[in-house]
Amino acid sequence: MASSLIAGRPARRRGALVGLGYLAPALLFYVILLLVPFFRSVYVSFTTWDGISPKEWVGLDNYRSILESEQYRDAFLHAFVLIGFYAFLTMAVALVLVGILGSTKIRGMVVLRTALFLPYVVTPVVTGVAWRWLLAPDGPVNGALRAVGLDGWARAWLGDFAWSLPSIGMIGTWMLLGLALVLLIAGVQRIPPDLYEAARLDGAGAVREFFAVTLPGVRGEVAVVTVLSVTASLRNFDLVYVTTQGGPGTSTEVPSYLVYQQAFFVGDLGLAAAMGVLLTLLILLLTLVILRPWRKG
Amino acid sequence: MKTTRTHTAVGQLVVTCAAALAVVPLLGVVIMSLAAPGTTDSTVRAGGSLHFGNFADVWELADLGKALGTSFTISLSATVLTVLLAVPAGYALALFRFPLRNLLFVVLLTGLMLPNESLVIPLYFDFREIGLADNLLGVILVETALGLAFGSFWMRSFFRDVPAELVDAGKVDGANSFVILTRLLLPTAVPQLLALVVLSFVWSWNDLLVPLVMLSGGREVTAPMSLAAFQGQYTTDYAYLAAAALLTALPVVAVYIALQRSFAHGITSGAIKG
Fold first, then answer.
1. CB contact under 8 A, A37 and B32
2. Could A16 and B145 be called an inter-chain contact, meaning their C-beta atoms sit closer than 8 Å?
3. Nearest 5 degrees, angle CA B153-CA A278-CA B130?
4. In A, which residues are within 8 Å of B242 by CB distance?
5. Domain A71-296 - what CATH class?
6. In angstroms, what separates the C-alpha of B113 from chain A's closest C-alpha?
7. What is the DSSP letter of A48?
8. Nearest residue to B247 via CA among B217, B226, B268
9. Which residue in the set B29, B119, B228 is minimally distant from A241, CB to CB?
10. Are B18 and A181 an interchain contact pair (Cβ–Cβ within 8 Å)?
C-alpha cells in the first residue's frame, strides 16, 4: 500500500480537495450517464409510458404483468437455461480439462492463449452471423454430422423450437470456454508445486489431487469466470438479435432482448424498463451470491 | 518420469484442441468469405476459385466504409476519454484520502454490473431532448461512461501497488501531485494503460445495443449495426455475409492481436485483484 500523498492537517484538507478534484470528472460522467439513467429507468418502470404522452404512475403493475405473463416468465426461465450453458457447462468442461492438465507447462502458450481468447474478443454480432451460417440447415455443422452418418441429428438448429435455445447456449459456451481455460491455467500455475508433491507423497491419485489441490487453488479464478459468464449470459442481446430475434415463436426470448423489443417496437416503455430493472437486480444478486464464499476466504 | 512425459503430451494436446475449437469456426468464415457470391447452400467447397471481389462488393452494398469510419470515431474517442478520466480517478481512489472515498469506490464498482439494457430507455429519450440522439457524441459519451467503472477500478489497483518510496521521493523533491502522476507514475504504467486501451476499444467497438438505440434515426450506422442490417437483406447469401462479418471484426481482432499480451494481462490479473 503506497503512502497517502499529503500529510499534516491543513495540507491534508487540501490533499482531500485535490483528490476529489482528480475523481470529479470521472464521477460526473458516471453519475450523469449511468446512475441517473438507471434511477430514471426505475422510475419509468413504475409508470405506463409510450414515449409521447405523459407518464402515468401505476406502481408495481408492470412488475405484476411480468410475473403474471407466461411469456415473460419464460424469458427469465430461458435466461437461466443459458446460464446453465454459458456458466456451468463452460466451467465443467474447463475444470475437466484443467484436471487433465494439472500443473504441466504448456509450450507455445502465448499463441494458444491468443487463439483461446479470440471467441471472447470477436464482435458478438459477427459471432452471431458466423454461427447462423455454421448451424444453417445445410451448413457445415449439419454437413459434418451427415458425413459421419448422423443424418438423424442434422436439423435447422436455430429454427427448431426445441433446439434453438440450447444452440444459443452452445454458442455462449464456445465464446467463453477459451477464456475460462486460460484463466484457470494461470491460476493452477500460481499453486506452489510442493502442494502437488505433498499430495503425491500422500499417495493421492489424479482425482484426489484435483479435489485436494487444484480446485481449492483456483477458487478465485472460478469465481471470476463464473461472474463473467453469468453476466455474459444475461446480457446477450446482440447474439439473440442476429441469430433468432427471439424465435422460433418465443423459444429464445430473453429479458435482454425483450427490453429492446418492448421499448422500441411495442412502445411499452414502462414494461421494458421494469424488465431492465429486473435484469439488473438478477445480475447484482447472482454476482453477490457467487462472490460471497470467495470474499470470506 | 515416463508418466510425466505422457502427461505433458496429453496436456499439450488438450490445450491445442481447445484452441483449434476456438479458431476453426472463424477460419470457416474466412473460407466462406471467398466462396462464389450467391452461394446460398452454405457448403464450403474445396477447389473452387477464390472470390476476393466479395469484399469490394459488400463494401459497396453495406456501405461498410462509412460504417467502419463511424465505428472508429466512436471507439477511438471513447477509448481516449476513458483513459483520460479513469487515470486520475484511479489515482485519487488509490493515493488520496477524502471523505466517502470507499463509498464512492463501491458505487463506481457497481457500474460494472449495470447492464446497458437498464439504461438505454431514459438515455434515448433524454438525449433526444438535447439533440444528442442520432449524434455520434451521444454514443461516445455513453460508451465512455460504460468503460469508466472498469477503467477506474483497474487504474486504482495499479496505483495501489506503486511502491511508496516512489511517491515519497517525488514529495521530497517538492513535486506537486500532478507532476508525480505524469512524470513518475504514468511512465511505469504503460502495460496497464495498454490493457485499458485494448479493452475499452474492443468493448465500445463490439457494443450493439447502445448505438442501435441511440442512432435509430438511421443517419449514422456503426459496423456491427451495418452487418446486422446487411444480414436482414442478404439472409442466406453466406459468402457476402462472411465477407462483411470479417471486415466488421477485423479492426478489433487486429487491435487485440497487436496488444494481446496487454489484453491477457488485463483479463487475467484485472479481474482477480480485489
1. no
2. no
3. 70
4. 129-130, 133
5. mainly alpha
6. 6
7. E
8. B226
9. B228
10. yes
Chain B contact for A189, CB < 8 A?
Answer: no
Give the Å distances, CA to CA, from B220 to A87, A99, B213. 35, 49, 11
Among chain A residues, the shortest Cα distance to B216 is held by: A264
User: In angstroms, rounded to a whole number, what is the distance separating the alpha carbons of residues A46 and A59?
Assistant: 5
User: What distances in angstroms separate CA B65 from CA A42, B39, B221, B256, one per listed residue?
Assistant: 39, 24, 11, 21
ipTM score for this prediction: 0.92
A3 touches chain B (CB under 8 A): yes
Q: Phi/psi of residue A47, each to 5°?
A: -130, 170
B132/A contact by beta carbon, under 8 A:
no
Residue type, B154: W
Please state the domain extents for chain A: 9-57, 71-296
Q: How many CB pairs under 8 A join A and B?
A: 326
Q: What is the pLDDT along chain A (297 residues), one digit of tens a residue?
A: 445 555 556 667 778 899 999 999 999 999 999 999 999 999 999 999 999 999 999 999 999 999 999 999 999 999 999 999 999 999 999 999 998 887 778 888 889 999 999 999 999 999 999 999 999 998 999 999 999 999 999 999 999 999 999 999 999 999 999 999 999 998 898 889 899 889 889 888 888 889 999 999 998 889 989 999 999 999 999 999 999 999 899 999 999 999 999 999 999 999 999 999 999 999 999 999 998 876 654
Cell of A65: 404483468
